[in-house]
Amino acid sequence: MNLLPRLTITAFLLLVPTAAIRADEITGEQLYKQHCVRCHGATGEGTKKAPAPLLGDKSVPQLATVIDHTMPEDDPDKLDATESKKVALYIADAFYSPAAQARIKPPRIELSRLTVKQYRNSIADIVASYRGSPKLDDRQGLRGQYFNSRGFDGNKRLIDRIDPDVQFDFRRHPPEADQELKQRFDPHQFSIRWEGSVLAPETGLYEFVVHTDHALRLWVNDNRTALIDAWVKSGSGTEFRGSVYLLAGRAYPIKLEFSKAKQGVDDSKKMSILPPKPASIALLWKRPHRVDEVIPARHLSPVNMPEVCVVEAPFPPDDRSLGWERGTAVTREWEAATTDGAIEAANYVISRLPELAGAADGAKDRDSKLKEFCRKFTERAFRRSLSDDEKRFYIDRQFEGAEPNMAVKRVVLLTLKSPRFLYPDSPGLSAEQAIAARLAIALWDSLPDTELLAAANAGKLSNPEELTRQATRMLANPRAQAKLREFLLTWLKVDQNPDLSKDAEKFPGFDPALAADLRTSLELFLDEMVSGPNADLRQLLLADDLYVNTRLANFYGITLPADTPVHTAKVFGLAIPLEVGFTKVAFEPERRAGVLTHPYILSALAYNAESSPIHRGVFTARGLLGVTIRPPQEAFTPLPAELHPNLTTRDRVTLQTKPMACAGCHTVMNPLGFALENFDAVGRYREKENSKPIDASGRYETRAGEVAQFASGRELAKFLATSPEVHAAFTERLFQHYAKQPVMAYGIDRPERLLKSFSENGYNIRRLVVDAAVIAALKPPN
């Protein structure tokens, strides 16, 4: 801060005619005008000499310390500690702090269009409303039906069971069964059909893979056209692939058929002499940004779910410059994408119109049923009933003189291009309908369901207790669970799937498959932490459990309990990575705590061959504590380890960030990152580096002006778990993720009130989600 050099207090008082102002009566405003206004402007707006505005999130004690140590630049001693505190109090309250800025320019709730996720989910739910909605149960795996024939003759079905996954090696034997059934199976030819549903944990392009040496067909989210069809095989290939786009938190129908034939030998006498040919099959997938893995039981269900209408048209990415996805920009590219998406959805509807509308071709009542289908389609898209004028415009006029299928297509296109669909908070909704629309978009990124609409139409949602009950009910839906997981991964800065490639010579065994296992380990940990009724944020930072499989256990030196269930490979002759069963173990509880020391997070916040205290410190300061850290003014290239082979990573970072230009931010970041230096670039614990003992001591000056010190990653995690700054930052970011609006737009005191409720509820993350969604749904008037 460039502050105007001032006269001494004595000289200043001599210039005051009344000489009535004593030194202890000088206000912070007077001191600011005397010493600071020339460089920083009357309201901190900046000048040519110091163009950066005085805005930030430092607390008054932190501001006072900065002013006392560094301002005025030409003579920092001109202001004593008491005067520095007065200036800090004044500028924080007048214009510096976020609350002051909100008073000067109150944030508003912006009218927003659907984000890309909201667009796709909304169309999926409009179409889904015409289909049945069976409930998933606790069973995992696929229903497997085994037939003693090449085809699927019901009279020859010998086994009907649930298989947890599909990875079988039949070698020269028929499927496993009791002795009586085994004798009835013909080992030369048999067939199997697996069916049920596959649950998508994230949104993106999935690649399904089948390994087999016999005939197969695979359907995924399309019951009419196979994604993979190798029923009539040519060549000797044993790997078959097909891709499909899936939305997170939904279950999709899946069916796999396998047939082992006699392969050209028809003589039964010869068949009885010849040994059966081997047979094997495995069903895998490649999730977005992952590697091939056998689809695990937790992502499979024997319940047959209906198809989901998934719009795959490419969209430009939504703006994330403020830290959350916003639907504020309406560009030419976005406009074109919504047109492509509407056309794709319309074609999907027309191709399945008899099923969706219940109107068979040639039926006498077909036209009336199609009109009724269109009316419901438009009302569901608009989240309300249509007026008479709207019915004439959107429905009747489109059917005038048009072939029925074309009329339906026009209605779908007109509806999906309407602002009444694209803007979920558009005019025309009643107060209760608007609450329902905002609650659904917050929790599901989609439209209200039948129960929520019924509550809105009955005028119940203005009752806070009923609104909270609805939000709690909706949070139990898999779509809401997927969104909560998405938030936690965003909070941890790993939602974009960071590159975890490591130096193969330094870390042998750390390959893409192990990196994928680490990601699974983190996701299992997060899911467990927030799935129960006591989803305590503090436990995310304190728990000492880790989910591992045998591959992770071997790499990190973990001894698995003797009774650990292990899934062994059943596929003969196929070199494919298999997801071995994960189990929860206590992992170095005296050294680690929660997500901060999870090997996946530590690996993501590191370089290819070295740890990175800076990355880890920035994540802790900015991501967890909510400290504003500006990017460096110049490109930053770390000092190569080989240039200073005798220095530890801590020594090199200290050396490089010593200049004054770096000190401002690095005095905050570095000590936080240093506390994690006992963990190398792949998150393994170490006592020494370059034969020198690791110094993992660190410190942090809180906004209250206190200094917290810690000597390890575990001590840092304990500090963070109880830090009001972490709780406040988490609260605000969660609200932004769900409401997609700034929290202060709902009231200047809203952050404090939401944090107070979070604390009173035992830092329960699920309850915080409900509170955030309810606040967003009630939306105060601008």
Give an account of the 3D structure.
With 782 residues, the protein is α+β, with helices and mostly antiparallel strands. It has 30 helices and 18 strands. Strands 1, 2, 4, 6, 7, 9 and 12 form a seven-stranded antiparallel sheet that branches. Strands 3, 5, 8, 10 and 11 form a five-stranded antiparallel sheet that branches. Strand 17 and strand 18 (707-710) form a beta hairpin. The radius of gyration is 32 Å and the shape is globular.
Major pleated sheet = 7 strands, antiparallel
Distance between the termini: 35 Å
Number of helices: 30
Spatial extent as radius of gyration: 32 Å
Count the strands? 18
Task: List the uncertain runs.
Answer: 1-20, 567-579
Beta-strand residue fraction = 5-15%
Structural class: alpha+beta
Percentage of residues assigned to helices: 40-55%
Return the average pLDDT rounded to an integer.
88
**For this entry, what is the oligomeric state of its chains?**
single chain
Label the overall shape. globular
